[in-house]
Amino acid sequence: MIEILSPAQLARARVTGRLVGDILHTLKARCQAGTNLLEIDRWAKGMILDAGATSCYVDYAPSFGRGPFGHYICTGVNDAVLHGRPHDHRLADGDLLTLDLAVVKGGVAADAAISFVVGSRRAPADVAMIAATEQALDAAIAEARPGARVGDLSHAIERVLSAAGYPVNTEFGGHGIGSTMHQDPHVANAGRPGRGFMLRPGLMLALEPWVMAGTDRLVTDADGWTLRSATGSRTAHSEHTIAITDDGAEILTLPGAPGLR
């Protein structure tokens, strides 16, 4: 299903998006060496419920997972890049942490992810990898406008990640989003320009470039959810939910206020 949102729904999406951005911003500020992943999940739960929102993850049980997920946020450490299931693990100084959050409020979902280094030990390779996913996300958003094709966004992501030297996995990528978290169209992190669904005002997309250093192969943890680099290499993931407008794309999941691109 591809959903085109009404102006009223987009107004509610802005509220949901700001909530997601604010929660991720708050969690990033709280995370330090010694923080337990289960603490992060409890903090996320509290902020979601206090806002009158609903987690997209707790009851999430797709075909590729061993559901239900049972937690409020995805927490990936170092080589864990997608669907990281919170567990009893304390962060160390220098860990590369990815937080991925999706909630529904007012009947509209929003989804975003951030990667950052915990503490003061910031390996240059980690900083560069995170920056590459952020730059790829920026490049895709810059292409998002009425009349553009999904392939234009995918190609923009691939161009940045490949130029930075990272192999690109196309098993998991971005997606349409609206009244539910995962919808069509799929937005792969590699593609051909001029191909795919044509963007139009009212369409919402969650764009999510992610990479693993030196490999494009994933392996699944025994928990049935957490996806890791097959070689144990470090990983990074950046994501925003955007809305296509008459003029371009509006980023909905920035903390504080929506931003126009």
TrEMBL record:
Binding site for substrate: 83, 182
Superkingdom: Bacteria
CDD domains: MetAP1 (cd01086)
Cofactor (UniProt): Co(2+); Zn(2+); Mn(2+); Fe(2+)
Keyword Zinc in annotation: no
UniProt record similarity statement: Belongs to the peptidase M24A family. Methionine aminopeptidase type 1 subfamily.
Protein's UniProt name: Methionine aminopeptidase
Species for this entry: Myceligenerans crystallogenes
